[in-house]
Design goal:
With about 260 residues, the protein is α/β, with parallel strands linked by helices.
Length: about 260
């Protein structure tokens, strides 16, 4: 089996005590690629170290997370730009707008999103979108910047079928993780209505662990629980889910399946 995790914070301190063991375990279960979104300047060193240690297995993105857009956001964006100028990344992410935690810097979040979409166009890279409680705001910005041809993944998609179709029409894929296993999330109905060719798998580990691990630390091999749930919803096999979602991920990140 060949599974790709399109969104995991494998460099997070929650994994400091058993990271190597978890990676080895993941490889044994057929998880062959991890794509790691950046958060801010302080997360870059550990992320890049992990990519260097596991070449061809761990892939770094570069971006400024909307929750890290604060008073110093211009300095943070400058750091992102500097890294984009010197290293070839697989995507720009995670970027977007978050209106769940704090609305203080919404204008700055929007500025950061637009600037990073411009860089994605400049470097011909996909983007990985964070849109918690902000689908309409993010979608409006994508429409406004349609000339930049933004493409990529809506990470941790938890919207409606109508919203899913809107972003698919823009050329985006839906990142599906542990939330699909939650009893009252409603995401199962969205997945049932959307073709597998528009979906990719993710864990967002160490966050959002799937059932039956909800509330605990999420870890790499739990992506199998997500794949199993999607297979159940789509009335197909886990192997088919792994194959199709990995093919989708390879299209997004632009390289051949090994």
């Amino acid at each position: 089996m060949n599974i790709t995790d399109t969104h995991i914070h494998l460099y997070a301190r929650e994994f400091d005590n058993d990271r190597e063991d978890l990676i080895e375990q993941a490889q044994k279960t057929g998880i062959n690629r991890f794509f790691m979104p950046n958060i801010e300047s302080t997360s870059i060193a550990s992320m890049m170290e992990l990519q260097q240690k596991y070449p061809g297995f761990c892939f770094a993105m570069m971006g400024l997370h909307p929750c890290s857009v604060k008073e110093n956001f211009k300095e943070e964006l400058k750091t992102v730009e500097e890294w984009l100028n010197k290293v070839q990344f697989k995507a720009i992410g995670e970027i977007g707008i978050d209106l769940y935690w704090d609305k203080t810097f919404i204008k700055e979040q929007e500025f950061a999103l637009k600037k990073q979409i411009e860089w994605a166009h400049q470097y011909q890279l996909p983007i990985v979108i964070h849109s918690r409680n902000s689908f309409d705001e993010v979608y409006k910005n994508l429409i406004d910047m349609k000339s930049m041809e933004p493409r990529g993944i809506f990470h941790c998609f938890s919207g409606t079928i109508e919203q899913a179709k809107k972003i698919i029409d823009l050329g985006f894929y839906l990142g599906i993780g542990g939330v699909v296993t939650y009893k009252n999330s409603g995401l199962d109905k969205v997945v049932a209505a959307i073709d597998l060719k528009h979906l990719v798998l993710e864990t967002d580990a160490p966050y959002l662990a799937p059932t039956p691990f909800r509330g605990k630390r999420n870890q790499p091999d739990y992506i199998l629980n997500v794949a199993e749930k999607i297979a159940e919803i789509k009335e197909t096999t886990v192997e088919d889910v792994a194959l199709i979602t990995t093919q989708n991920a390879m299209k997004i990140f632009d390289f051949e399946i090994s």
